[in-house]
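Q: What would this complex look like in 3D?
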Amino acid sequence: EAQVTQNPRYLITVTGKKLTVTCSQNMNHEYMSWYRQDPGLGLRQIYYSMNVEVTDKGDVPEGYKVSRKEKRNFPLILESPSPNQTSLYFCASSLFDPGQAQETQYFGPGTRLLVL
Amino acid sequence: QQQVKQSPQSLIVQKGGISIINCAYENTAFDYFPWYQQFPGKGPALLIAIRPDVSEKKEGRFTISFNKSAKQFSLHIMDSQPGDSATYFCAASRRNYGQNFVFGPGTRLSVLP
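A: Here is my prediction, written as structure tokens for the whole assembly.
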């Protein structure tokens, strides 16, 4: 079954305590990305990766880091979380093919983060 | 230029009616326009997408209309059903360059039985 998994699903932490949210996909997709979803703002892309060792900033990268050492994993790292990073986070993967009319794309179930 | 505008913010439609959600963009370099459906407590799911070389794409009850000159695209849901009640997001991307996605703020659709 095609799947994007995220862990943890819920996390409460305190300001400044480093945390990592893991993302893994089992579809051998090249393209992976992280989004945050906030009420009234929709989804905003944080970082994306076109393949192993290839990452780039999205629209809201400040305060976040990512790495892509393996094709299946794309962890999101908050080195020093702050309350304004309280949000719902989604990881997604897709088969990057600019020639296709519609790409295959899957989102994970989300990670709800509260930073106190 | 990166912004994607979406309207309406919320929409109430009777069962069997047509739901129409509109989006507009500024960046003419965008070359991929997907729509997503999100149910409460779930991640978004890709619903249908279009590239700017066609003006319309239909999949079942869902149709995207694309107007390149006006820089607008819309989602039409025919014969709307209560099970279609969800939040819908449009998005745009420069996929030929593998670049990032920009999303609209979302439309909350309620289909009354």
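A: To summarize the key features: Residues 92 and 99 of chain B are 10 Å apart (CA to CA). The mean pLDDT of chain B is 93.
Q: Very helpful, thank you.
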